[in-house]
Structure formats: structure tokens, C-alpha cells
Input
Amino acid sequence: GLAAERAILDATLKILREGGYSALTIDRVAATARSSKTTIYRRWKSKEHLVLAVFSQFPMAEPVAGPSLEADLIAMFGQFAKIMDNSPLRGVLPKLVADCVNDPQLSSALIQVNERRRAPIRQVLNHAIARGELPKDADIELAIDVIQGAISIRLYFLLDQLREQWVRGLVKMLLLGMGATPAPASKKRSGSTKSSPRRR
Output
């Protein structure tokens, strides 16, 4: 039932936080969740599928369509900041990334997770192309790499937050590097965003 599933996912997250992926076994998950291996395998085929399930239960950023690409990106960074501030995954991801080096199956699972998190950014950038703010040949995937890389360094290496001044500087650099121009007035869409990056 739902209670058993919740206990299994909570146990998986607990083990990942404490010992990383190398410590994650179905036996240990079953013992921690006070469940059975049969129950786990009935729902998830492998421990990689358990990892995917754990990540899937946490919120992702939603694409926005505000008045400009600059506003949209700043709003998305605000979502990233809020999500990571409240997510236990912040303590899990670095360990999983390290384990990926020697585990192709885990690497494949995390690629799936990451692709879902790239999709909202891709949608925002493609929308900017459609409304004339970015060149049609803009390298969207490279821009997403830069965004995700900058966030990872900020959160996991510098152990800092996505502060507003830093976010605005990064967004301006991205816009300049991608050759962004203001959208034609006729194509601008009004709107506002609820999330904003953390202020100093």
C-alpha cells in the first residue's frame, strides 16, 4: 500500500544520505523500511529504479513565460533556490555523482533524472527563440549545461546559496553570450513570477 511505499522510499533516501549509493542494497532497504524484498521488487525492478523513484517525489522547476527571457530565467533560478533549500537531495547528489564514475547503471538512471530537470529550462529558452529574443541557431543545450554547471558549483563546491546578485550576473552573462535581444513589443507577454532568488 501507500504506507509501505512511503516507508521504502524514505528508507532509500536515508541510506543514500548516510552512506551513498554504494551502501544502498535491497536487503538494507527492506530492513530499514521493515518491509520485504518481495514487496520492493514487486514495485521496483532494481535499486536504480528506487533512486529514480526517490528523485521523482521531489518538486521540479516549472517553465515560466513572463515578459522577457531575463525575467523568466531569474524566476526559474528563484524556483531552483527554493527547491534546493528545502530538499534533502542536496546532501545526496554529490555522493551519487561520485558513484556514477564506476557504475554505468546508476549513471544511466541519473541521466534520466537530469533530463527531466533540463526540460523546463529548454522550454523557456525555446520560447525565447520563438518570440525573437534569441537567435534561431542559439545553442540551447550548451546554455543548459552552463546553467546546471554554475548551480552545481555554487551549491556543492562553494556550499553557498543562489543569491540574487549572483543570479542576475549569471543571467546577464548568458544573455550576452547567446546574443539575446529584446523581444518585439507585439510578442511580449505580460506576467509575473512568484519566486525570486534569495536576497543577501
Notes: The chain has nine helices and no strands. The longest helix spans residues 104-130.
